[in-house]
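We emphasize that the prediction below concerns an isolated chain of 140 residues; any contacts that depend on oligomerization or on bound cofactors are therefore not represented. The input was used exactly as deposited, without trimming of termini.
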Amino acid sequence: MYVCSFGALDIFYVVCAFYIVDYLNKGSIFVIAQGSLLITMMAVLPVHSYFINRKGHKPVYITALSIFILAILLMGLHTPTSGSVWVILNMVLMGIGISANNLIPHQLPAVYFRYRPRDEREAASRYLFGGDDAFAKVIF
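Result of the prediction step, given as a token string:
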């Protein structure tokens, strides 16, 4: 999930660069738009983390994905005559949605590999064979 998440983000950044610079002819605001996207992503991380701890990963990820889809659809409404402020605000909205996409792949390994021994024997054997069960969980 980690590799797919950041691969998709890299492709998304390239598409946004093309869209803002070539389609909208707003190369002068490109740095501001991308900067507002990245700053919003970082600023919203604690908010997503708070809601993940209270509600769980799934509802937060679905909500953030919905916000991101809404921002993509709104981005399709922009034309070369659209105001620069609306493009920047749309990038801020995208940053709110993409932020969870960055956060959740970092949090899932801690949740997935949480160690819960079934009995004392398994707890004692964990010191000798630490990674076998974790590797099996990833494969199967």
